[in-house]
Amino acid sequence: MRVRAPELRGRGWLNTAGKEITLKDLRGKIAILDFWTFCCINCLHVLDELRPLEQKYGDALVIIGVHSPKFEHEKDPEALAAAVERYGVEHPVLDDPELITWRQYAAKAWPTLSVIDPEGYVVASMAGEGHADGLTRLVDQLIAEHEAKGTLHRGEGLYVPPLTAKTALRFPGKALPLPSGGFLVSDSSRHALVELAADAETVVRRIGSGTRGRADGGPSTASLSEPQGLLALPQRVAELVGYDVVVADTVNHLLRGLRLRTGEVTTIAGTGRQWRSTVDDHAHDALSIDLSSPWDVAWFEERVIIAMAGIHQLWWFDPIRRTTGVFAGTTVEALRDGQLPDVWLAQPSGLSTSPDGERLWFVDSETSALRYVERAAPDDGGTSTDLVVRTAVGQGLFDFGHVDGPGGTALMQHPLGLAALADGSVLIADTYNGAVRRFADGALSTVETDLAEPSDVVVTADGTVLVVESAAHRLITLAPSTGSTMDGGRHTVERPPTLLQSGAVTLEIIFTPAPGQKLDETFGPSTRLSVSASPPELLLTGAGTTTDLSRRLEINPAVTQGVLQVVAQAATCDIDAANPACHLTRQDWGVPLRITADGDARLPLILRGLDA
Questions:
Q1: How far apart are CA 407 and CA 410, in angstroms?
Q2: Which superkingdom (predicted)?
Q3: In this structure, what CATH number is given to the domain that contains residue 78?
Q4: 335 and 480 share one domain
Q5: Residue 476 and residue 370 share a domain
Q6: Contact 590, 334 (CB under 8 A)
Q7: Are residues 412 and 437 in contact, defined by beta-carbon separation less than 8 angstroms?
Q8: Are residues 484 and 502 in the same domain?
Q9: What percentage of the chain has pLDDT greater than the value 70?
Q10: Structural domain boundaries, residue 531
Q11: Residue 156 in domain
């Protein structure tokens, strides 16, 4: 059975000069629909994976971004337009704030890709990232098939680039006070670092070529890709390693070292490939291990801690031994406290060590949470040498808002940065609320509002507080304030819940190897499935990890709703190749459930498969 592609419906279009695109406009071309939301790190990975396909198949392939938002802020058309520029999206984007097209294509996860052939039929759907090789083979197959049939029509695409304003900074990410009194800023959208004078406005110098790349070298020849976090190493360490600042070179999946005196940039950790492996507790040579979207860096416990946003973990990096490894997190995207490393994180994006060195504060952007790492207390069940993660503010993947008050009930919306202060309080860049919040004495208050996506907070040696106002392309000084109390409302993600029955339910992960690939059993089982639930009592049986992509679950009839957390992966290799390449396809789902008497007894999730 062949399935006709549903029409594309939403509020409007970006990157088309106002033209509305219909399926008729796509006829004769291969189309890939990319269902994304700009908060999601996995969606940003897919944007990077699609760029080479856009370049290779430009006259035969059309990529359409379908923006189906998670957070309330992402429904703002101006915020979406900013995100499209910020992340260098160079294809048409459908604004789908009510998830109309999302539902029509039965998407259940961010990101999801649907492939439409030149005759208007859906031929494949896949969730998650890591599909670039499979898509290449599929597009090659479709080109050959439809050229032979005469149904492929090559020609110009539908993308119309928007105009870009000229500003000194463009979507800056993080900032670092310098000994000179100035500031180093990651000019993320321009793929560079910028040194500003003490007025936080005057440009002293730029470091980086300004074009996306990954070359080492001096200020004009080095290249980066959407850099974010910045860390000044302790002087004694800097003298030993030969660089002063650690840079989280996010889209390159690298850490870079910067020597301030010369502006020289070197690669200090990562291979440039994105991490697609299994978690272990070993120390690895820093230049031989893959990283995944490092978003921020901080100094804690005599090491660099990395907010590894791409895989929902914290990693450590030892600049002297030149080694790195996992610090906290299992790669499950959720919120669970406990002893390291067996905790759950959700896209950690900002780090700050308390001035006394006792706590590492961080924000998990996808759970809108403020959390911290500290030494375990005797009643934690560990020893004084154990580290634990605790949550100060945050309730889960689908709960957010702008609510002040006690940490247990307060809410934020996708925070990206923070600064721990000497008095024990923490200032938070509550990004999607456009606010700066203050956590002190167990409660959250609002310090400043009406900001344009603040992404970081920094404190100078004299106590001055500056905010990186990313979507306004500037740094601003925060006026002193004791904070006020606000209730801007509570929100939950408006994804329609999946209706399941209580009792026995079959979870099935649908996976079909890409054309030219087969499941790879060379190093053991080729598939892996991990299942957990929030609340845990939602599942009576079926939680845990196995190598089978099908699982019998028993749903607790006493629980009416919750979130099923599913992590699936499949290893494949090329068929009939002299040196076959290996591929790993992986996806995390957080599936909202409602338990009803007339609910389904089967839950299928597409990792990769034919839609028909």
A1: 5
A2: Bacteria
A3: 3.40.30.10
A4: yes
A5: yes
A6: yes
A7: yes
A8: no
A9: 95
A10: 497-611
A11: yes
Which of helix, strand or coil describes residue 490? strand
Query: What's the pLDDT tens digit per position in 50-105?
Result: 999 999 998 999 999 999 999 999 999 999 999 999 999 999 999 999 999 999 99
Q: Are residues 484 and 504 in the same domain?
A: no
Give dist(CA 137, CA 140) in Å, integer: 5
- Is 516 strand, coil or helix? coil
| CATH code (residue 453) | 2.120.10.30
Closest CA to 297 of 417, 391, 427, 198: 417
Whether residue 527 sits in one domain with residue 436: no
Do residue 461 and residue 417 come from a single domain? yes
φ, ψ for residue 239, nearest 5 deg: -65, -35
Q: What are the phi and psi torsion angles at 85 (to 5°)?
A: -70, -45
Helix (H) or strand (E) holding 177: strand 175-177
Alpha helices (H) in 1-76, listed in sequence order = 23-26, 41-56
Characterize the bridge pairing of strands 61-67 and 30-36. Answer: parallel
Residue 455 and residue 431 in contact, taking contact as beta carbons nearer than 8 Å: yes
In a domain, residue 285? The reply is: no
Give Cα 562 to chain centroid, integer Å. 23
State whether residue 533 is helix, strand or coil.
Answer: strand
| Cα 232 versus chain centre, distance | 24
So what's the pLDDT on residue 612? 32
Alpha carbons 333 and 397: distance in angstroms, whole number? 8
- Any idea what DSSP says for residue 189? G
What's the rounded Cα separation, in Å, for the pair 191 and 223?
7
Domain match, 336 and 414 both: yes
Query: Using CA atoms, how far apart are residues 543 and 241, in angstroms rounded to an integer?
Result: 45
Query: Which of 462, 488, 514 lies at the terminal end of a domain, its last residue?
Result: 488
Quote the number of domains for the chain.
Answer: 3
> What strand order describes the sheet that includes 387-393?
338-339, 387-393, 369-375, 360-364, 348-353
SS3 state of residue 48: helix
**Within a domain: residue 136?**
yes
Q: Tell me how long the chain is.
A: 612
58-90: b (≥16 Cβ within 10 Å) or e: eebbbbbbbbbbbbbbbbbeebbebbbbbbebb
Q: Considering 433, 467, 488, which residue would you say is the last residue of a domain?
A: 488
Alpha-carbon span 103 to 26, nearest angstrom: 20
| Euclidean distance between CA atoms 98 and 292, whole angstroms | 31
25 — phi, psi (to 5°)?
A: -70, -20
| Helix (H/G/I), strand (E/B), else coil: 52 | helix
What pLDDT is stored for residue 611 in this prediction?
38
- How far apart CA 20 and CA 101 sit, in angstroms, is 14
Same domain for 521 and 398?
Answer: no
**pLDDT digit string, tens, across residues 336-373:** 999 999 999 999 999 999 999 999 999 999 999 999 99
Residue 271 counted as domain residue: no
